[in-house]
Amino acid sequence: MLDIWSVKSGHSLGTFEERSSVNVSLPVVSNIPNVKYSIISGQLPPGIRLKNNQILGTPLEVVRPTTFNFCIRAEKDSEIADRTLRITINGSDEPIVLTNPGLLPVGPNETYFVLDSTPIDFQLEVTDTDTAAGQRLRFFIASGDGLLPPGTTLSDSGRISGFIDPLLAIKLNEQNGNYDSQGYDAVAFDYGLVSDNGFDSFGFDSITFDYSAPTKGLRKLNRNYEFIVTITDGDTIIRKKFRIYVVGEDYLRADNTILRVGTGSYLASSSSLKTPIWRTPPNLGTVRCNNYQIIKLDIYNTVDIGPVQYYLNPLNPDQTASVLPPGLKLDIKSGELFGLLPYQPEFTKTYHFTVTVTRFGNDNETASVPRTFSITILGQIDSTLKWISPSNLGTIDANYTSTLKIQASSTLDNAVIRYQIMEGQLPPGLNLMDEGEIVGKVQQYTSQNNPGITTFYDIELGERISNQTLDGGETTIDKSYRFVVRAYDQLNYSAIDREFILDINTPNDRLYSNIYTTSYMSMGKRKLFKDFILNQNVFPQKNIYRITDPNFGLKTDMRILVYAGIETVDVGEYISIIGLNHERKRFLFGDIKTARATVPGTNNTVYEIIYVDIIDPLDKKDQHLPLETKKFSKVNTVITADTSNYLWKAQDQYSFVKKREIMSARPLENITIDRTNLLASDPQSSKRYPNTITNWRRRIRYHELINGKSIASERNYLPLWMTSFQSNKEELGFVLAMPLCYCKPNMSEEIILNIKNYMATTNFNFNDLDYVVDRYIIDSVSGYGNDKYLVFKNQGVTV
Which of 26, 260, 312, 767 shows its CA 20 to 30 Å from the CA of 206? Predict the structure, then answer.
């Protein structure tokens, strides 16, 4: 056991403040070199790391003082020593209220008062660094801590909002509230105002005794609403007192003798006239032509608001013409839009116009606010949908990529039709996209992640059973799927449903996989390619085939197909394939080409593909290196192997080697004896295995034959474009290529021209990408439906 720690388990390394630098040495014996330290359990405070024998960094925010326990392992050679340590981080910060206590500036232009019957929307500003650690501030008014103005509320997030209820108004027959002006207890509280411009306010003998100028009493009683807001982050609590001053509109009139300047609460621009507040939203929606329409443009109604009028502005804020739809008029008093909308040939047409509402007060006072509205007129056009796709979609082979699509048509020009499954389900592995494409491939067998089609086997016979029945024929399991799809237009004015039938064919009773490879180049090279492949000017989305389908669309992963249709087995069996003729390899790029994929048995083009030829420098078009070559050697030495996985060279090829000689001899190399590229009869490793794409494909096929696998016809698993007749009436067959994109029929020439222009203007060159590969990507192995990676061994006998 390594004796290195100088403290016992449970030792504290200290207490530190959050957001303060920490640099602590581990309590270890310093004279023991080359010791490796690692955390094997627990955790360090966030923001702190272990580096060599130092704990350093800056601890992040914590909501409260927190102790972190962790176990560090010291390791040297084969000896280890563990020690449990702890660190405490202090951190419990009170929220800081940024909004000043007292009177709140809740009025227009941040005035310290607000008129009754008007809206209020004010955010209390508070900051707390503990929120970075996950805490959340909560605001509330506790019982007995005051009241907000009636009609307003305080949210948990500290926002005061609502529409203030009207203040209490004094009736005219209650006089001015002065002494003996009405009966005792006629009003719930005293509100009379004592005149301050009476006898004592004037010069001696300038007026008669006990003279006073009459003071006009106010109809509404202003009020201060005082309340205490409690703010908590879950650990700490602070309380702040605020006030909201609500006044009646008559308090801001010129004949008010009570109001005094210098209070700081009122501005010279303050007015008793309330600004109108729009209730009608800017978007008036969609209406159909050839109909009589009445649309009310509305504002909030309050008491004593004064008369209002509505005006149509000549221009919108963006300086475009403010025009009502033909047939509509604006009632300037009620704010109603009314009239008969005439026939409209367009499918839809949108109008934008600005209306200003003005409130009038005494002495020609006005308060105005504009709003820009939009309304869409739907033309006298019927949206009628009709199915194009037949109810029976035919048969699709399991484990093959789907190119199926369901389609409906509309009587509307440029209609956008969407599709949605309403009942039933697609076969496992397939999905219906919004545009009607059925993407994916039918999964024949259940994997760890996804369901598959049910299949029964006779274990004794070792074969698949067809026409399986249960319950004496009452229950059957077949491969026919029924589902109902709804097609609807973009405005949901028309929708139709249809039941579809899709049959599944299983031409193979085994599952097959595809093998790919790709290059993991530097980030700079990847960005160079991404800038090219994602350029909308080069690859317009409208020209791309199934842009949302991962099997088609734009290909950003730079994959190339190596082999299509190898039986899906355990990952270990694939490893033996790459034991020979496989090594890290650099490919070159050739010409940019295009090909088309057609419906089997017809000349109907499904899609076109644009790809770049991939060139193997060691693989000529008509001449290929063999699977193995042999260099000449005169040496013929016997080698042996022992259980330690070392190879040994004998002293004499005609006699057994003495044990002492073997023990003293040097091994040839450290290598497991299950390697297939070194033979006991070939001690000098004279055999070499050329690293070419042709030999890669040969090894895969020979592996199938040697292991007695049933070889699937690779042609069936090749992409459709490789098995389709091209313009020269020939099939391409397997092509070593890197696909760039799948495009709609007759669009490839335009995209290729875009690519050439891009390369000419940006000096982009594919061979600048440095396409080096070092592994296989298999799209499925036994039990798993996701990609698996097999890295090449890069052994010296592969050239």
Answer: 260
